[in-house]
Amino acid sequence: MDNKHPVYIVSGGVGHSGEQVVRTVLAQFPEQAAELKIEGRVRTQEQIDAIVARAARDGGLVVHTMVNADLRQALAARLEASQVPAVDLVGPLLEQFSQVFEQPPSGVPGLYRQQHRSHFERVEAIDYSLEHDDGVDPQAWPEADVLLIGPSRTGKTPISMYLAVLGWKVANYPIVPGINIPSEMDDLPAHKVIGLTIDPVRLQAHRRQRQRRLGTAVGPSAYIDLEKIYEELQMAKRFYSQRGYRYVDVTDKPIETCADEVLRMAPGRSQR
Q1: What would the DSSP string read from start to end of 124-150?
Q2: What are the sequence ranges of the domains in the chain?
Q3: Per-residue pLDDT for the chain (272 aa), expressed as one digit of tens each?
Q4: Is the sign of the CA dihedral 55, 6, 124, 197 positive or negative?
Q5: What distance in Å separates the CA atoms of residue 84 and residue 67, rounded to the nearest whole number?
Q6: Fold identical between 5-115 and 117-271?
Q7: Which phi-psi region, left, alpha or beta, contains residue 41 (left: φ > 0; alpha: ψ -120 to 50)?
Q8: Residues 13, 38: contact at Cβ < 8 Å?
Q9: Which CATH number, 2.60.40, 3.40.720, 2.30.30, 3.40.50, labels domain 5-115?
């Protein structure tokens, strides 16, 4: 286990609440390493038996947030029989509230997430977009609502982040002359990929500004050469046309305007 302490987070929902609590507590042990194993949507005795068996084999700790009383009791019994250390995060609290409110809990997993669905979707979208910026992890592109592509400094990242705040999972990829496109793009439907373009002179200005900000010497370079930039943008447009990708011209437009144009082209807009 690479000296990492295995911690099994067991939930009838997706396990987000348990994971958050565990990570909060683990922050108090910065020199220790733990491997979190999220076991979500646990609804049967068979699942419980399999999870406890793995935890016993690994010498792991089980932290659970089971709101269904029958499953919680079944899990507790199996943990005790297998002598697996465990922490019940919600059972005692449910019992206390039952006494205060003089009624039993509903015992339905995932209710909080359902009640706050838009919030969780937004958080997940932001996390996804941050983790898949600038071509990172193409294998996860099928999970994206939109893949933005375009030459460097055409606004892919800021537009991605703006859309993520609206709840869209957006990945982006820079088209660079001489660099092969990942094969994962071939498997995406054309309507899911949206290109970006810009006026060559404005792109040159953006790139010069970036060089100055990074402290890079501003001199002859294909990156800021206007003729090369023109060729790069033409190449990108040809690529969009060949693949059947629609594209947005971002020249002198605010981010929200560009994002709105992307949304009008993106699939599933009516469902958002």
Answers
A1: HHHHHHHHTGGG--GGGGGG-SEEEEE
A2: 5-115, 117-271
A3: 457 999 999 999 999 899 999 999 999 999 999 999 999 999 999 999 999 999 999 999 999 999 999 999 999 999 999 999 999 999 999 999 999 999 999 988 888 777 877 888 889 999 999 999 999 999 999 999 999 999 999 999 999 999 999 999 999 999 999 999 999 999 999 999 999 999 999 999 999 988 888 776 555 588 899 999 999 999 999 999 999 999 999 999 999 999 999 999 987 644 44
A4: negative
A5: 20
A6: yes
A7: left
A8: no
A9: 3.40.50
pTM of full prediction above 0.85: no
Top CATH class of 117-271 equals alpha beta
Q: What is the Cα–Cα distance from 250 to 247, expressed in whole angstroms?
A: 9
